[in-house]
């Protein structure tokens, strides 16, 4: 027995997102372009790009946080050095993988680099309970150095 959705002004997109996706894929596979929900489909495709950008920013920020910890958090360095280095390797690899899949995001990464650095600096200051002045105001390295697997502060 098939359950019918209540008849309202709401679209399938608003009432059952998963079903909307499945129906949209079916329509696309059948090349039924006339009945596609173009407005929501366009929004969804654009959101994929936004999602990748947010992910890239987050990864870059986390990379910088761990580089700052390694370079400046002296009281915890001995105990956490290997963990921080492991995280640095992990974040670099994830960033490189994302850029390999979408090389057009490289300029975006460059454009948000300084903002990500400042945000990471604020976060590490809060986490470490060290004054913000402990961490250099200007980035500790270029973006290329930060992504270089052989570079550490």
Question: What would you note in describing this structure?
Answer:
- With 153 residues, the protein is mostly helical.
- It is 71% helix and 0% strand.
- It contains 6 helices and no strands.
- The longest helix has 35 residues, at 38-72.
- The model has no long low-confidence stretch (mean pLDDT 92).
What keyword list fits this structure?
6 helices, single chain, 0% strand, mainly alpha, 153 residues, 71% helix
Question: What's the gist of this structure?
Answer:
The protein has six helices and no strands. The protein is an all-alpha fold. Helix 3 packs antiparallel against helix 4 and helix 3 packs across helix 5.
Protein topology:
Layout: H1 12-15, H2 17-29, H3 38-72, H4 74-101, H5 106-128, H6 143-147
Helix pairs in contact: 3-4, 3-5
Mean model confidence by pLDDT: 92
Number of strands: 0
Q: Residue share in helices?
A: over 70%
Number of DSSP helical runs: 6
User: What ranges have pLDDT less than 50 throughout 5 or more consecutive residues?
Assistant: none
Radius of gyration: 22 Å
Broad shape? elongated
Distance between the termini: 64 Å
What's the order of the H and E elements? HHHHHH
Strand content is under 5%
Query: Main beta sheet: strand number and arrangement?
Result: none
**Structural class, from helix and strand content?**
mainly alpha
């Amino acid at each position: 027995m098939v359950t019918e959705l209540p008849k309202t002004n709401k679209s399938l997109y608003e009432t059952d997102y998963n079903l909307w996706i499945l129906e949209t894929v079916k329509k696309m596979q059948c090349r039924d372009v006339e009945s596609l929900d173009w407005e929501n489909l366009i929004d969804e495709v654009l959101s994929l790009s936004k999602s990748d950008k947010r992910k890239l920013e987050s990864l870059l920020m986390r990379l910088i946080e761990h580089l700052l910890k390694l370079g400046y958090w002296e009281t915890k360095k001995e105990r956490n050095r290997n963990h921080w280095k492991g995280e640095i390797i992990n974040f670099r690899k994830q960033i490189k993988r994302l850029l390999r899949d979408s090389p057009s995001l490289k300029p975006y990464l460059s454009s948000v680099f300084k903002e990500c650095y400042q945000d990471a600096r604020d976060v590490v200051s809060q986490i470490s309970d060290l004054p913000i002045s402990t961490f250099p105001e200007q980035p500790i390295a270029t973006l290329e150095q930060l992504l270089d697997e052989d570079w550490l502060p």
